């Protein structure tokens, strides 16, 4: 199975400075994110969201707030007939030293454990942060950085100006 691993905040929905997240109750979808997800789904990719949520353990949001925003996002996507296979999040603070916070590979490794038929060679990671690109590098898979480059000029790593540009590569 080929999987499109999507970052959440700043890629699918609006991202905010850490302190502003405390007051966020509803996801705001970024331009072209719904249509791009729909097109990726229609091209035969399973979609898994991989999201750092250090905001939880750093005290900016509660676990319940994270789940509420994610549930609202998933509901809205389902209304557009977009199927999200799964969502993996890392709640750990940036200094906890866990193996799941991006660019560590823990969330994708957990996805592979749960879905052993994932073919990493046919899959990709996309996000708006350098850690998303570095995760792709660490997994030796195709990666797309929206507005972010990579310090290495590795093959299969692409810099995009916007999310919908990924459709030209898949």
Automatic annotation (TrEMBL):
Known EC number: 3.1.3.-
Top enzyme category: hydrolase
Primary location: cytoplasm
Cofactors demanded by this protein: Mg(2+)
Keywords (A to Z) from UniProt: Carbohydrate metabolism, Cytoplasm, Hydrolase, Metal-binding
GO molecular function, one term: D-glycero-beta-D-manno-heptose 1,7-bisphosphate 7-phosphatase activity
Keyword rRNA-binding: no
Annotated localization: Cytoplasm
A Pfam family annotated for this UniProt entry: PNK3P
Family, as annotated: Belongs to the gmhB family.
UniProt-listed PANTHER family: D-GLYCERO-BETA-D-MANNO-HEPTOSE-1,7-BISPHOSPHATE 7-PHOSPHATASE (PTHR42891)
Assembly: Monomer.
Protein name, per record: D,D-heptose 1,7-bisphosphate phosphatase
Natural source organism: Sporosarcina psychrophila
């Amino acid at each position: 199975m080929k999987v499109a691993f999507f970052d959440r905040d700043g890629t699918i929905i609006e991202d905010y400075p850490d302190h502003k997240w405390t007051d966020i109750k509803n996801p705001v979808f970024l331009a072209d994110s719904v249509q791009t997800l729909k097109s990726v789904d229609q091209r035969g990719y399973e979609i898994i969201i991989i999201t750092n949520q250090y905001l939880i353990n750093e005290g900016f949001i509660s676990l319940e707030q994270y789940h509420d925003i994610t549930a609202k996002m998933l509901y809205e996507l389902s209304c557009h007939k977009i199927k999200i296979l799964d969502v993996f999040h890392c709640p750990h603070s940036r200094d906890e030293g866990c193996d799941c916070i991006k660019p560590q590979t823990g969330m994708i490794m957990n996805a592979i454990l749960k879905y052993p038929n994932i073919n990493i060679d046919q899959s990709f990671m996309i996000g708006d942060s350098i850690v998303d690109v570095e995760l792709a590098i660490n997994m030796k898979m195709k990666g797309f950085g929206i507005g972010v480059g990579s310090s290495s000029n590795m093959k299969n790593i692409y810099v995009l100006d916007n999310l919908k540009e990924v459709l030209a590569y898949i």
